[in-house]
Structure formats: structure tokens, C-alpha cells
Amino acid sequence: MQAGRRLRLPALGAVVQAWPWALLVLALLAVRLSKGAGFTDVYALLSRPFWPGSAQGEWVRSGQALNDQTRLRQLDADNRRLRSLLELQGRGGRELTAAVISRQAGGWWQQLVIGRGELQGLRPGMAVTAPGGLIGRIASVTPTTASVTLLTDPGSRVGVWVGRVRRHGLLTGIGTSRPLLRFLEKDPGVRPGDVVVTSPASTLVPPNLTVGVIQSVDERAVPASEAVVQLSAPVEAIDWVQVRLP
Amino acid sequence: MSRLARHGWCLATALVVPWLVLAAPGPLKLAGIPPAWSVLWLLPWALADGPLSGALAGAGLGLLLDALHAGSITQIPALALLGWWWGRMGRQGPAIERSFSLGLLALLGAALLGGSLILQSLLLGPWPLEPALHTWLAQTLLTALLAPLLCSLQLLLWRQQIQGGRG
């Protein structure tokens, strides 16, 4: 009996005294299982004063912007070259800014009159844009003014393109602030939110100009689907427009 | 021969109509639609000056306004017809002076003008009817509301000019 008690008591004491080591082992196990979460976090906290400064971040961003610009120029040059090979109309080089001197966006005719005309090189058919995208085409010119038929006018017809689904359509004014996009196919696969741009194959207006966003789609329309387009340029609010010169 | 047109400035007041169409003053719009300024000018002119003068003034005004708009629909037939009709009314029977009568005639005139534009558009091809009806209704109502004030003043002025010319 005495020998048994002597053997058991020291073993229990050792276990009691070793509890900090047990905690350490458990902590190490936790670190191992968590893939070193605590250590790296503490390291990040301690080393924060030595992290790369904001100047280096700016260098990276400006390098990225330069890279983007270079890439854009290359793509633009490629696009122009391919368009010339395909004998498609280009986007035009120059833009002429003109003030809106009369705005008739409601009523029987939906048009603007702008304060530049034939003397400044404007001709019927030229595309007119505003901050946001295409708003219409010049219908007639006088020596110092030009009349612009808006995309919302019932007489307006412009070929457009929905890039996400690669589908062509005809944007038709219906006399309201939102023109109607008539597709050539029964099921074009478009959905609200798709961006509408001028057709890359258009010969009437420069290609790839932003027109608006599809607001709703009527798939039951006959003979093909139709969509209502919210124009991206606010015709009621703009006072200055740009005319695309060839 | 038009008695009013002998005074050059009377005829020149017709130029206010295309200027108002171009300026499209915002406070004088109903749901974004302006009144038929041509009707508001032509009604007192025709009532004061007779059917021939009214028809010619309507045709001339139509020519001016057609020049301001793209497309092939025209206001000339409706305005010439209205000028002739109102001119006959001014010559036959008692003089039309009451505000209610002027408002009613302007309402009918704006409705006829809008109707002729809708009809021409429908004849030229498919045309969305719902926005056209909205424009037609708003323009007719607004023209009728403005007519008692604007047409009464013009009618008074034209009659004074005609009586002054006689004297």
C-alpha cells in the first residue's frame, strides 16, 4: 500500500505542474491547424511602419495607367486599320462643340437647334453627341445654325448593337423620352441593363458610340423582340453638344 | 385686301410665333408640351380681318413653321382652313368677344391642327399612337387655357387698328 501511494502521488504532481506546457502545446497545435494565422497577423502589425509607402503605390498605378493607355492606342490603331480594310466608316477625327439654342424635346417634333452651321463645316447626317453618348443627327443646316433630330423623334432610325450578346437592332424614336429597340431576331437574349452602342457596321453614324441602356424587354412582340432603351445622354439638361466631323 | 396687313407692324407680329416655337418657354408648357402658338396668333387675326386674310395668314404661318421642323408633315392645310373658318365666323353674326367663346374656338383649332398632324403621320407610315394622343391632348388643353387671355388682348388691338384705319 505504501509503495503504491509513493509511486502515484509524484506522477499527479508532475502533471499538475506541467499545465503551462500543455497550454503551449495546445497553442502550437492551434497555430498549425490555422496555418499560422496569429503569427502572420502579429507580423503584419509589427512590420506596418516598414511597408511600401504611398509613393510606390502611385508608381504602380501610374505604370498601370500608362500600360492601359498604350494598349488602348494599339487597339485603336488596330481597329482603324481593320475598319479601313473592311471599308467601314471610322469614328471621325474632330469634334465641334456647339451651344443648344433651342430645345424642343416634347411635342410633335423632337429636335434641338444648335448654334453652329454650314459656315463651320456642318452637314446634314452628321452625328451629334453629348456627355453620355449619341443624342441624334443633323437634319438640316443654315449658315449659322443646325437642326438636330433627336433619337426620340418618331422619324429617327439608327442601327445599334448590343455588345454582350452581339446582336444588331434598329433604334426607333416613338415620341417619348425612351426610344424602342427593334431586333432582327425573335430571341436575341438581351436583358435589362445591357449597354447599347451604335452599330460597328453603321455607315450613317460613327461606330461604337454609347447610346443607352436597355430598360425592359418585350419578348412577345411581333415579328421580333423589342426593348425600351433609356438614353445615356440627358437631352433635357444639356446646353452644349459635340458634332462629329468626318 | 387685308386691312390689318396694311400696317406692316401688325403683320410682323406673326414673327413672334416661330420665335416662341424656338424659344419654347418652360413655364408655358404642360407635361413638356408647348401650346399651339400659331393658333393663338391666327384666331384673333382671322376673326378681325376676314376669311381671305385669315386663310392667307394661316398658309404663310404654316410655311414659316414647316421650315423650322424636319420631316414631311405640314401644318399649312390645317392653319389655312382654320384661318378661313374663323374669318367667316368673324364676318357673319355677332362679334365674337367672350373669353369662353375664344377658348372654345382655340380648343377646336388646336384639336384640328393636332389631328391633321396625326393623320398625316399615320398616312406616311406606322406611328406610335399613345405619345401622339398625349401630345394632342396636352397641347389642345393648354392652348384653350391661354386663349382667353392672349386672344382677347390681340383681338382688342386688331379691332382698334381696323377702326383707326377706317376713321
SS-derived structural category of chain A? alpha+beta
Please write the string of helix (H) and strand (E) elements of chain A: HHHHEEEEEEEEEEEE
Return the CATH topology of the largest domain in chain A: Thrombin, subunit H
User: What is the CATH third-level topology name of chain B?
Assistant: Arp2/3 complex 21 kDa subunit ARPC3
Rg of chain B, please?
A: 16 Å
Low-confidence stretches of chain A: none
Q: Biggest sheet of chain B, in brief?
A: none
Q: Structural class from helices and strands of chain B? A: mainly alpha
**How many domains comprise the coordinates of chain A?**
2
Low-confidence stretches of chain B: none
List the total number of helices of chain A: 4
- Judging by the overall fold, what is the CATH architecture of the largest domain in chain A? Beta Barrel
Order of H and E elements of chain B: HHHHHHH
Would you kindly provide a written description of the structure presented here, covering whatever features stand out?
The complex is a heterodimer of chains A (246) and B (167). Chain A is of the alpha+beta class and 246 residues long. Helices cover 30% and strands 30% of the residues of chain A. Chain A has four helices and twelve strands. Chain A has a six-stranded antiparallel β-barrel with strand order 1-2-5-4-3-12. A six-stranded antiparallel β-barrel of chain A has the order 6-7-8-11-10-9. In chain A, a hairpin with a 6-residue loop joins strand 1 (94-104) and strand 2 (111-114). Chain A is elongated. In chain A, 30% of the residues are buried. Chain B has a single domain, classed as Arp2/3 complex 21 kDa subunit ARPC3 (Orthogonal Bundle). Chain B has helices at residues 8-12, 16-23, 37-49, 51-67, 76-91, 99-124, 129-166. In chain B, helix 3 (37-49) packs parallel to helix 7 (129-166). The mean pLDDT of chain B is 87. Chain A binds chain B through residues 101-109, 111, 113, 139-140, 147, 149, 153-155, 174-176, 180, and chain B through 21-24, 29, 31-34, 68-71, 73, 114, 117, 121, 127-128, 131-132, 135, 139.
